[in-house]
Design goal:
With 190 residues, the chain is mainly α. The protein has nine helices and no strands. Helix 3 runs parallel beside helix 5 and helix 4 runs antiparallel to helix 5.
């Protein structure tokens, strides 16, 4: 594999490039959000090349999926993120971002119940691996925008998930980052 930033030869186990000191594999959308699109494309080309050589490498597949997610190519992102989920019970990343990709930039209210159930399954899988405030907030968002707006009873309620998110350190900046990532406007204040 080559470093996606400078092109130096590295292995898929390398965490940081010895030459340019950049991280080899992106692990969150936040890392990509600040990158200009040409650099995202450069990273994606390097990851796709590595994925072709190592099709079962979960970290590489997750990185390709995140790049596609940043480019709003949701179906391609979901394809790679689902590959990264295979036999992966230690990393919540592909499960959480697969749920984001399933939204496809739409508000939950506009999805059908099957899509909502798939999203919730992915979020629950991520929470079972490594619970984080953003996952609780995502579940709260789904429960509030889909179930509450359609007058459907559900337990736990969106308020309970929101409280869990706040208890786990959710901030107003986290909410803004989440909505920027999913492509929907912020519709709640902490």
């Amino acid at each position: 594999m080559k470093c996606p930033s400078c092109g130096a030869s590295i292995t898929t186990q390398t965490k940081q490039c010895d030459y340019c000191q950049s991280d080899i594999l992106v692990k969150s959308f936040k890392n990509l959000a600040a990158m200009p699109l040409p650099q995202v494309n450069k990273y994606m080309a390097a990851y796709q090349s590595a994925s072709a050589e190592h099709p079962d490498n979960n970290d590489v597949n997750a990185a390709v999926g995140l790049c596609f997610l940043r480019l709003k190519k949701y179906d391609q992102a979901l394809n790679y993120l689902e590959k990264a989920q295979a036999d992966n019970f230690e990393d919540a990343t592909p499960f959480f971002y697969a749920a984001v990709a399933r939204l496809k930039g739409r508000k939950p209210f506009l999805l059908n119940r099957q899509e909502i159930d798939q999203i919730m399954t992915d979020i629950e899988a991520a929470m079972s691996i490594e619970p984080k405030a953003e996952q609780y907030y995502f579940m709260s968002y789904i429960k509030r925008d889909y179930f509450k707006r359609k007058f459907l009873n559900t337990t736990p309620s969106w308020e309970e998930y929101m409280q869990e998110a706040v208890d786990n350190g959710l901030s107003a900046a986290d909410v803004e980052e989440f909505h920027a990532m999913v492509g929907t406007p912020v519709d709640i204040e902490l």
